[in-house]
Structures are given as C-alpha cells and as structure tokens.
Amino acid sequence: MALRTLNVAPGFMRFMPKEYQDLVEKGPFGRQIKVTDLGTFKEVLEEHPMCEGCAMAFFIRLSLAALPNPEHTVMVGTAGCGRLAISQAAIPFVYGNYCDTNGVATGLKRGLQIRFPGQHKDVVVMAGDGGLSDIGFSQVMHSWFRKEKFTTIMLDNEVYGNTGGQESGMTRKGEVVKMAPLGKQFEKIDMLGLAQTSGVAYIARLTPTNPSRVFSTIRKAVLIAREVGPTYVQAYTSCNIEYSIAPEKVLDDARQVEKERYGFVEIMSDEAKAYLERIDAESKA
Amino acid sequence: MMNSKPYRVVPGPEGLLPPAAATCGIVLPEKGEGLVLGSLQSEQETLLVMARELLTRKNPTIFPGPLVLWAWKEGVAEKAASVLELADEIPGVRIIPMPDYRPIYPKIDPEAVINPCHPNLTIWHNKIEVCVFVGVHCHFANITLKMIRAGTNCYTITLCHEAGHEDSMASLPFCGADQVRALTEAIRQLKREGLRPRYADTPGIQLTPTQQTVLSGLAWQHGDGALAE
What we know:
By secondary structure, chain A is of the alpha/beta class. Chain A is 38% helix and 13% strand.
C-alpha cells in the first residue's frame, strides 16, 4: 500500500461504504497518531469477530494504531485467534502457513527493500504463542540468527485458544487447561532469553494495561527493525474463554499478571539505543 | 458413460462446488474475442449479448473492484469514468463496490459492499440477476464467480483487464476504457433498435438504501455539501 492508493477514483466516493469514506477522510494514514488521539480518527481496525472482552483484540487494536507508517506496513500472521482481527484491518495482511510466518516475512521484507529502495516498508509478524514458539519456532529463531530486519510480535495467551485449549510452549508449568488435564509438565519457554542470545536488537515484554506503553513499545520495535535488526515484542493477551476470565475482569487479570510475573521488560542493544536517539534528535531539529 | 455434450457456463444455482469451467474444456478468449456461456464469440457479438442481458434481467448491478475504485495509477480515472458512463446507460442499475478483499466479519452490509469471501449474500439480498465485475483482481474474481454460480441464479459478466474468466457467463478479456465504452455503445445500439429496457421507467443509477443513508448525512461532507472525490 502507499498513500496514493488511498484516493478514490473520481465519481465513486458516493458508492463507497461509509467505513472506506471514513478511512480516506479520517484515517491514520500519512500522519503521526498519538495514543491520546484514539477515538478521534478512523482506526484501521474496528469491527472484528473476536470474543467479548478479548485482551488480544484490545492489544491488536492498540498495536495497529501505534504503527509509525500504516500505509507502508505489511502484516504477516498465521492460524489462531489473532488473525481473525488482523486480517480484517485496513492494512495488507499475508497469511503464512502455521510454521513459516518468519520465513514469509523474510522474503517479503527483502523483496520490498529491492522494489522500494527509497521507502521504508515495515513488515510486522503478529501471531500467537503456538504459531511462534511451537510450530513456527524454527523459522522465528532462524530469522533472528540471520538478523532479518522486521518485527515479531507474539500474542501470548499461554494456550491454543482457537482450537479448544491445548497447552503451548508458553503455557506455564503446572497449568491445567481444557485439553491438558494433567497440567503442563514443562516450564514456559524463555523466548526473551532466546531472543537475547540470538542478538535481537530490541526485546520487550508487556501487558495491554497501559496503552501509552503499548504505543511506545510497538513504535520503537518497528523503527528499530528498519535500520538496526530484528525486534521482538511479547504481549500477555489472556484467553478469557480458556482461562475462564469474565469479560469485565480481563484487564484486572492483566494488571495482576503484570504485577506478579509478567512485568514490563525492555532490552535494547546499544546500536538500537543510539539509533532511537538519532531519529529523536532529527525529529526535533 | 462420458457426456459428449459441451459444457455450458449458465446461471446457477449449480450446487455446492461446481467444477471450474476450465476443467470442463472451456478455454479463454484471445484478444478480439469474447466468451459467452463457455463458447468463443467475436468481441462485438459478446458485447451485444452483455448489453441485452444488462437491459433485460432483474436488478442489474455493477461490482467495481479495487483496480477501478482506487486511483492508484495513471489511467484509472479514465477507466473509472468509462464505468460510470456504462452505468448511466443501464436503467435501474446499482453500483455496489468491492473496495478490497479483506474478510468482513461478523457480518457484511449487503447494500454497501460485496465481499469475495461470500458474494452470494449481496446477490441474494439485492435479488441481483445480472452483474458486471470490473477491476477485480483475477484470482479473487475466479473464487467469487464460482461461488455465485454455485449458489445464485445471477448472470455474471466480467470486463477483465487480463485474459478473461471461464467461470462467468460472458467475459471480455484485455478490457480497458475503450472496451467498456464499446459495451456502452452496444447498449445504446440495442436501445436505438427498439429494445425497451426492463427498468426504462427508472433511468440512471439507483442508490441502495444504505448508500442513500450514508449520502443523506452520515458521511463526512465538505462545506459545499458535496462528498469528497
């Protein structure tokens, strides 16, 4: 996508659905959106088929609004709850197979760099813990080893929520879920540690309790991936169905999980830090 | 026993999972040709068939796709203008866009949009018995056309910018603004020859109720009251 693709052909505006008229007139494209702007513009994702109270849907909504240049972004995802919302957003979405999101993103990013040498094209993988830490694990790791310049965002609901509650590598040890009645036998995979070992330039772990923090984290991750190297964001996005959390208690749960074990973790390489400082200084100049 | 009768691509409903017409021996037309019910015809004959169907079947509707709806490159405005000229010649026609291909859940508004994932909903709701696809990327058009043939009685016409579509009832390949204007001219010719359009009493483009609602005040408008173009 590019800004010029957002012009309706002469004469056709009156036939366009209202949503598209709004996107053209009041969308986030071509301008910097702040978290305080939420509610004042047409977001790229509004309606979606996710469950009532879904923390993942909330996090996806915030993340998509936080993208620095949505008109120059391509999302990559795979099977799982998240793609039901991501694929419906007004941002190009590539549906990878379950194991190959980061392989697809690699090819996409390299191709876009060749095709648009003068324009940053951001590639963002957004998939669940099953897609990234289990079935897609190998390709995630290898994209990090190769220092591919795109962002990987894990929607960590700590379960296979879309298929009825099987344990994933990110399920906590001892956790009993609907299709793991004996409880998880192994520890939750330390993806942050693996990312650090692999030399990922920016690593963050957070919950959706603080929209400003989600905005700044996603923005940093996408910007650093442009020039420095791979970035990884891991977000706790509870499955309120599989973990039986009442919709109105979802954010309370996120706050509690953040306080007790998830926290907010941010690990940045020196190069990434210097890069952020440089673009910050340039924007103020 | 093998069926020796040539396969014909006729309006459905053909039932769940109709065969792809290409697997039944239907071949795509060359430049200067068209495809009507699976048979190769000259371009002019194809245009006249399309024109007749558009003027005589119930609830004619144009489904413009992203390639003509968005002015993404030079030449699109010209083709878009030719599509609007075509619409102006079909009494009672509606224009329901397919602005992109993203899935729309939990539900679509069939008076506002046609979605490639379930085009039958728009066709059923609006009781459309003849439609034109123009500016839709071929791979999505192919899916859509098969679904329409499977579940509806709609006569599908494709004005394809590439090689045409076996699964539509009438298809014109390599179709730019000139070919769209040729179809408009074919419609004018039939009218001159005395064909009275089914909706002769309601000339011009008819907005769907949803489009009327949006136009009457829910859309953002500029100071002069006109929608942004």
